[in-house]
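The authors assume throughout that readers already know how a fold can be written as discrete tokens. In essence, backbone conformation is discretised, so a fold becomes a row of integers matching the chain in length. A single example would do more here than another paragraph of explanation. For illustration, here is how one protein appears when written out as sequence plus structure tokens:

…
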Amino acid sequence: MSAAPPTAASPLADWLGYLETLHPKAIALGLDRVAAVAARLQLTPSCPVITVTGTNGKGSTCAYMEAMLRAGGYRVGLYTSPHLLRYTERVRIDGIEVDDAAMTEAFAAVERVRGGVALTYFEFGTLAALWLFARARLDALILEVGLGGRLDAVNVIDADVAVITGIGIDHVDYLGGTRESIGFEKAGVLRAARPGVCADPDPPRSLLTHAAAIGAPLFRLGTDFGYVIEGDRWQYWVRRGQDIVRRHGLPLPALRGAIQVRNAAAALTGLELLAGRLAVPMGAVRDGLVGVDWPARFQVLPGRPAIILDVAHNPQAAAILALNLGDMGYFPRTIAVFSILADKDIAGVAGVMRPRIDRWLIAPSGGARGATAAHIGAALAEAGIGGEDVVACVDIAQALARARDEAGEADRIVVFGSFVTVAAALLALERTRRPGH
């Protein structure tokens, strides 16, 4: 039985603790529960809605669209997950993270109508975000799917445009262990007679079949839109009927890595499909590309040794991280600070990163889904990584401190794995900047 609910004036931490008591499972896919409560809250957006799903690149794609739309003068709501340091990072209105008071008011509004419906933590938070957006007089709403698509709480809202960034193997316990099964789940965000964007260069047949079956026009990378990197600029093209429209001389995105151009092209295509309702001039597109900010996606911190933060937590994301590290230039040594959740393909991630890493400092990830250092070490051994190249630490703070002690000025440290890994590193770095440290 769950505890008594907090009030709207209760601290946010009390609400977050309460949310964890409402459902016996942390993840329970399905729309029946969240749809029932959404109906009671009368959550029907009055502005265009863009839903974004995919194994990797979802958050970056959302950030590009938010930046471009805001540069074009639109008032935008953005919902993403998970967060790094604060729960309220998940909900942004007109580019500003909501405050604790607004979040707890929204939680209280959901609780008032929830009745006996057992919502998960994510479902409750999604409904609260939608409640806030409904009161914010938005011009556009961007929703990032949490897990999968078809049965994710975000999918309770019908998207005007659905963007699918790419499909890899992750969350196999919930989505299946093949790209075909995962593709079907991602395709669930599409709606009949409403356009979708697919930025996967080789989409699963299940996704294409579902789009055709429901009559959702699908704009595919390489067929209906694409990009060409030309030095420090790039060219975007999109099919409009029988014509091809090209945009030349676009600045490279502020987010690092070649994959970010693909994410930006997917974002631009999503906006292109809403041009009749949300016209975005090319000046705003350019401003959005250079002004976008999305932490922990190949984020290189200033100073020496170089510290790179990345939330790569599956083999596909790790491959992109490895490629980006290879494009950085020469560093004598690369030291990894690594921790990841136990239900991930740890050996697969480590195997992809192995050629780029000289030394591994590992630590437990904590929480119900966390992996111990011994578990991570065993997975590294499975990938052929062991001996003196691997050191187990008590926590991420200790691992990062050791990495900074060991690294020369010309070396680099890459902190990667789960969101909680990067968050712990950010907190540790913040503590070292305070007086007395």
The first strand starts at residue 49 and ends at 53. The chain has two domains: 12-291, 299-432. DSSP finds 15 helices and 17 strands in the chain.
